[in-house]
Amino acid sequence: MAKKKKKKGSKGIQSQLHHLSWDQLLERGERFLEAGKARDAISVLKFAAKRHGLTDEIRPLLFRSYLHRERALREKSMFNEADTLKKSVREYMPKLSQISAQDLALYLSTCSNQEAFDLYGRYAAKMEVPAPAVERFLAGRLLLHETWEMLSYLGPDLPVVKDADTAQAALSLMNGAEWEKAADALRGLPRSSPYAPVRMFCRGMAEFYAGNDAAAAKAFSMIPEDFYLKDLASDLEKMLLSEEKKNQKDLMRRYPQLWDGPIDIKTRMAELIRDLEAGRTKAAEDKISAISEAIFPDDPKRTRVYILQILRSMVVQGKMGEREYNRLVKNLLPPEDKDLLFARIQMAEHGPGPSSVVSYLRLLEKDFTDPEERKMAHAFVLQFVVDLMEKERLNPASGPNRKAIRENRKLLGTDGSKPEMIPIEMLAKAIELDPKNRSAYELLVRLPKSSRPATQLTEKLLLDMADRFPDDPYPCLELATLYYRKNAFRKAENILETAMKRAPHDNRVIERHGLAFLISAKKNIDREKYHLVEKDLDRAQAVEAKRIGPMVAEKRALLSLIQEEEAPDPVMDQVMDDRTLFEKLRILALLLSELNPTGPGRKPAMIKTIEKRFQKVLKQSSQLQSSEIVRLLRPLEEQFSMIYPTLNLSPIFLKYKKNLIGRVDDEEILFLYDAILTKDLIPTLRKDIRSRLKSAKPDHQLLLSFVLLVIDSISGKKEVDSEDFKEITDNAKGQLSETLRMLARRLAPHAEGHLKKALELFDFSLLDASLFGGFPPLPFDDDFDPFDLFDDLGDFDDLDEEDEFQDDMSGVYDERFGDILNRLRMGEVGPGLFLPEAEKKRLLREFSAIFEDFIDSIGLRGMPESLIKKLRGLIREQEGMRHDFDFVARLLEENRMARKLSREARIILYGKK
Amino acid sequence: MLTNYLILELSPDASDEEIRKHYLQKVKRYSPEREPEMFRRITLAYEGLKDKRNRVRGEVFGGLSAQDYDSALRSLADARTLKRRRAGLGELMKAEKTE
To answer: Is any Cβ of chain B less than 8 angstroms from the Cβ of A175?
Structure first.
């Protein structure tokens, strides 16, 4: 069928041609050529030649047509057909003088080097002018094949010959990838030189290596279509400019020589994540190895370790089993690195306390070979543990920590003989290892210190810091605070003078200086040395620290009131004179916080007067901005704790004006709740939230609901689980989710146990975790799976058969517990074995402390009531334990100490909150 | 931690001076106006590495401090800068012919 069609087609064209004149035939042939229809052009022109003879007019046209047809066949990879057609090309080759430069260039592209140069040599000699397109083509041939001897066929004046030496020198630079030098070497060439496109290409490559992709692409785009480097230049141009990632990547893969590093690493990493999430551990293992090699070929093991560290969060989130993880680690790391990784994991996951870090500290030498770095790491780990213990309010002397301290005194820097000293001694060790570490000193200052040895050690360390950081006023300021607490006023003032010398313009120093005088004033008021107070207040005022102005005024008022030199109202009038509403309210609230009816010189009548004044001024609160109300309600900063009995003034404000909080704008309220949250204020805050929920926008409703849920859980009003939070978190996207996370972190310190952890990590699935939130450090081997210990999460029917449970319970029956019980029992037996009341109470307090530690250590804090009751049930099945607990529970009740126990302790001991 | 080294194109045993030098080169190339995201990453990486104490602290917990494994792994892949390797004309011509 095709053949018939063809015959019909060619017959069709021929039948049309019969009517055409010579000129028309030529014109039609040329038109076909211009349109790229070489085959049709050939038909027309051959017809013309047949009719009118192969004239000098037709011959060049036929020559050109065959050339174009030959090229078309080569482009279609029809090489045999093209070779056949080449004969026709030669057959119709006109005289040299009749060949155009373009046709010659096209013809030469079908010839061998020798043929091409020879023919051009003759052509140029005949035409006496060079053909730029041909010379460009020949220049390409020379550069491609480096057959410089071919130039002998050409006349010496031809540009391709004259510029050849320059080009040849540049070529060796180009092959050596010295593109910048090559571009320089070609700089002297004229624009008309046949080698000029090479210079453009070199410039493009130089820009590429300089990272100027746009300039490089532009240079590549300027290379002529007929130059031999055009295809390469086009590819590079597309690669640099392509906005389609896929195309760009494909081109990058075609030229891997241009890239140092893995081109498709992101794709491979995405595949790894998919494998891990689908549980295809073996495939993931192989990918981890390959990716590590690609990312960091110098040290792929380091990358494997790092990736495995990152993947640990999959285990924490329950997306990978412990067994799978252990297998990955075993297969990807040598034993030494495996041990190090698990020691790190233990440190990161197994709760606060020295016991979780000793394994890692023992391996520190292997992790940090540089001694200075090792010391820094050691110091950091100690600081980390102390920081966690302080945040979690952990008793470091309990449970497994006691044993860890006993066995690792040198590593931990403490012998554990005094519980309060443990964190301070550990920090002292950290400071000894890394004395320039500022943050250790800052943590030291935050630690509670009630004993003399604790204060003395802190003082020594701060004095060392003052020596080590001679320009820093911070240690001086903290020492001043410490001296004031010890009533060492002279020392405090001297050290503050030092601070002022070190940083006379530092606002912190100026304010602290003023504060120091206020502290002195307060102390003198407490000691009833009123004659000294006025001087202190004058000096405080002279410092001119803006923020403490109202405090100075308040203390003056307090002094006057205590001394009863004047009636309260005139005193208050004087103090309030020229004060803003904000300052008046602040002064009055501070005064009320100090006017304890049982304190020296405080009369109930006077307090009533101040309260009335306060209520009167409070009525004007509608004049206050939302931000001012927030500042009034927010707790004072820690530095004022030495001047006022409480930093949280919000209960005072809200006692007299509950709806004051309602005046705070929605934008500011969320981050006020956590700042003022106390047990007593919960009803007020709950009411405020409920009120706002009625008219809040959807996003704000979500945030308020979250806060309400947390507050209800903390207060015990509601037992929450992950589903309660899921309803909220699932509806929070983007920025809203971030705000929720922030809120959760801020509320976490008010919570305990699993809820606290869930809020810190923003992972509420932890609320559904098993009773034993963490596991004691155990050897990690292939067959170990902690979850094998429990068949069902939350189902404790099998617990009484589990060794795990027994071990934890036996921790309660340590020596001290047994001692306490024995002594308490002896006091009950009868005359002759009398136990003084004070001693009984002391023992009961000690028991309470141990019991609360036990509750913390098994992760019971914050757990739902139903679970705790189950544990109570299990305990009561042990006869000995039941008797002991009932005995102590009764004594606690009789001595009115039961109500001081935590919710969890009361449920275990009494079966109810 | 390793991500920080990769972002700044450093080896893990780089000195304070080398780290600072690389950081300055990078921020010169990725200015906050033209490449704000890259500038942010470079600055964060530098904060994590700028002195020995920071580096040691980063090493102690390493990747364990990542809470979002997906984001941490992708950041690691992103951090691996593809450097431009010097290639001569002959190499490029060979690659062009191979498809």
So the answer is: yes
pLDDT of res. A96: 86
Residues A554, A555, A561, A564, Cα dihedral to 10°: -150
How many Cβ atoms are within 10 Å of A253's Cβ, its own excluded?
12
* Contact with chain A for residue B85, Cβ under 8 A: yes
| Whether the Cβ atoms of residue A306 and residue B62 lie closer than 8 Å to each other | yes
CA distance A197 to A213: 19
- Comparing A776 with A186, the larger pLDDT belongs to A186
**A309 contacts chain B (CB < 8 A):** yes
Helix, strand or coil, per DSSP, at residue A44: helix
Cβ neighbours of residue B68 under 8 Å, at least 6 residues apart?
A313
Q: Which residue has the tokens 């297969």?
A: A331
pLDDT for residue A392 is more than 90: no
Domains and CATH numbers, chain B: 2-81 (1.10.287.110)
**Which tokens belong to A614?**
């306060």
Runs of H (alpha helix) within A544-648: 549-563, 568-576, 581-594, 604-618, 626-633
Interface test with A, best of B65, B71, B73 (most A CBs within 10 A): B73
Identity of the residue in B73, B88, B96 whose CB atom sits nearest the CB atom of A176: B88
Give the model confidence (pLDDT) of A11-21 as tens digits.
666 677 788 88
The residue behind tokens 């024995």 is: A822
In one-letter notation, the amino acid at residue A497 is E
CA distance B36 to chain A (A): 18
To 5 degrees, how large is the angle CA A801–CA A802–CA A808? 125
Distance CA A457, CA A460 (A): 5
Distance CA(A144)–CA(A162), nearest Å, equals: 18
For residue A165, with 0-12 CB atoms within 10 Å meaning exposed, 13-18 middle and 19 or more buried, which class applies? exposed
Cβ atoms of A863 and A813 within 8 Å: the answer is no
Between these two residues, A468 and A866, which has the higher pLDDT value? A468
**pLDDT of amino acid A651:** 92
What region, left, alpha or beta, does residue A409 occupy, with left being phi > 0 and alpha being psi -120 to 50 degrees? alpha
B84 in contact with A at a CB cutoff of 8 Å? yes
- Test A308 with B63 for CB contact under 8 angstroms: yes
- The answer to whether the Cβ–Cβ distance between A265 and B77 falls below 8 Å is yes
Q: Which residues of B touch A377 (CB under 8 A)?
A: 56-57, 59-60
Query: Nearest-CA residue of chain B relative to A208?
Result: B84
Q: Within its chain, how far is the Cα of A424 from the centroid?
A: 30
Question: What gap in Å lies between CA A25 and CA A47, rounded to an integer?
Answer: 8
Compute φ and ψ for A131, nearest 5 degrees: -110, 105
Contacts of B55 in chain A (CB under 8 A): 373
The per-residue pLDDT of chain A, averaged, comes to 85
Mean per-residue pLDDT for B18-39? 91
Best B60, B65, B71, B94 member to test A by mutation, with max A CBs in 10 Å, is: B60
With 60 as the cut, is the pLDDT of residue A518 above it? Answer: yes
Of A175, A231, A255, the CB nearest to B89: A175
Residue A476 predicted with pLDDT over 90: yes
pLDDT in tens, A209-246: 998 888 999 999 999 988 888 888 998 898 888 766 66
- The band of A10, judged by pLDDT with boundaries at 50, 70 and 90, is low
| Whole-angstrom distance, CA of residue A720 vs CA of residue A716 | 9
Distance between CA A265 and CA A291 in Å, rounded?
A: 7
- Chain A segment 236-265 residues within 8 A of B by beta carbon are 254-263, 265
CA–CA gap between residue A219 and residue A200 (Å, rounded): 6
